[in-house]
């Protein structure tokens, strides 16, 4: 399944970020805690090469807690400040300003010695589509400043958001990168809704999702849907077992594959199959070595 999604507004966003990067001191990057590697846009590291960096592992409520801790340590080892967050509930949001202030402390002190008594902190907040940036900002300011949605590509324009008198955020639209060299990255982003669902066939996507989940969390599907199968059961048979168990049939007892696929994908995204992380630090380190 070849997945590529880079609509025109993302090219515009990338250009806007390049033009505005000089206005900020810190780049805050939101990652999906279920996909800490695949949700990390490689172009952001180039863009923010000379900036202080904060990584926010968002949606930790949906991710495997043990793996989240491992990923947090990994990013810390790479020089990032790391915050574990759930933008929907506000978990971790109170940590952002203190962490940012600590990163700015040396610069603020240096400027104060030169006579500048008021030194605001300005940060650019970035991330892939549907990672929860707008929800986080709304929790941050305590009101609906940013438009939110459960699909990719809701935010389309930049906006400055004043959090406090001396702390401002430049919100940016979700952005991917032009080409996924590894198609597994595209698949995993599609699983979580970072790629517009309208460009994909959910009945094909769900077969890949079932395969992933069966390899990583083999009991999750069995427990959620009350079905039984073994390691030799083909993916399409697992798919059909779920449909039959849920009674997703058309006239003539024909399986409704589309409805079944949409339900499985929606329930995975909502965390109803359990807390899952589809990538591990161990796998990454094996590849690096």
The residue-averaged pLDDT reads: 88
Number of strands: 6
Structural class call reads: alpha/beta
Approximate shape: elongated
Number of helices: 11
Helix content: 40-55%
Radius of gyration: 21 Å
Q: What strand order characterises the main sheet?
A: 3-2-1-4-6-5
Short description:
The chain is an alpha/beta fold and about 290 residues long.
Provide an overview of this structure.
The chain is α/β, with parallel strands linked by helices and about 290 residues long. It is about 45% helix and about 10% strand. The chain contains eleven helices and six strands. The chain has helices spanning about 10-20, 40-45, 65-75, 95-115, 135-140, 185-190, 200-215, 220-225, 235-245, 255-270, 280-289; strands spanning about 25-30, 50-60, 80-85, 120-125, 160-165, 165-170. A six-stranded mixed sheet has the order 3-2-1-4-6-5, with helices on both faces. Helix 3 (about 65-75) links the parallel strand 2 and strand 3. The longest helix has 18 residues, at about 95-115. The chain is elongated and about 80 Å long. Mean pLDDT is about 90; it is low at about 150-155.
List descriptors.
alpha/beta, 289 residues, six-stranded mixed beta sheet, 43% helix, elongated
Furnish the topology, listing elements before pairings.
Elements: H1 8-20, E1 26-32, H2 42-47, E2 52-58, H3 65-77, E3 81-84, H4 96-113, E4 121-127, H5 133-141, E5 159-164, E6 167-171, H6 183-192, H7 202-216, H8 218-225, H9 235-246, H10 257-269, H11 281-288
Parallel strand pairs: 1-2, 1-4, 2-3, 4-6
Antiparallel strand pairs: 5-6
């Amino acid at each position: 399944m070849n997945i590529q999604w880079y609509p025109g507004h993302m090219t515009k966003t990338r250009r806007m970020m390049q033009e505005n990067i000089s206005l900020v001191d810190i780049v805050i990057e939101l990652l999906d805690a279920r996909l800490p590697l695949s949700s990390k846009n490689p172009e952001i590291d180039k863009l923010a090469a000379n900036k202080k960096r904060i990584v926010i592992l968002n949606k930790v409520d949906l991710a495997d807690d043990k793996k989240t801790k491992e990923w947090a340590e990994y990013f810390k080892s790479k020089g990032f400040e790391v915050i574990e967050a759930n933008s929907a509930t506000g978990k971790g949001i109170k940590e952002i300003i203190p962490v940012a202030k600590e990163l700015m402390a040396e610069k603020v002190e240096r400027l104060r010695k030169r006579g500048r008594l008021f030194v605001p902190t300005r940060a650019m907040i970035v991330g892939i589509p549907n990672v929860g940036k707008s929800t986080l900002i709304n929790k941050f300011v305590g009101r609906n400043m940013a438009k939110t949605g459960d699909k990719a590509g809701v935010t389309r324009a930049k906006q400055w958001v004043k959090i406090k008198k001396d702390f401002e955020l430049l919100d940016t639209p979700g952005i991917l990168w032009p080409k996924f060299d590894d198609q597994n990255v595209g698949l995993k982003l599609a699983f979580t809704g970072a790629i517009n669902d309208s460009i994909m066939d959910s009945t094909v996507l769900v077969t890949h999702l079932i395969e992933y989940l069966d390899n990583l969390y083999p009991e999750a599907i069995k427990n959620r849907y009350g079905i039984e199968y073994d390691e030799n059961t083909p993916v399409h048979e697992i798919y059909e077992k779920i449909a039959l168990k849920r009674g997703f049939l058309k006239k003539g007892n024909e399986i409704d594959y589309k409805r079944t696929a949409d339900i499985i994908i929606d329930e995975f995204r909502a965390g109803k199959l359990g807390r899952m992380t589809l990538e591990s630090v161990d796998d990454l380190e094996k590849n690096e070595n």
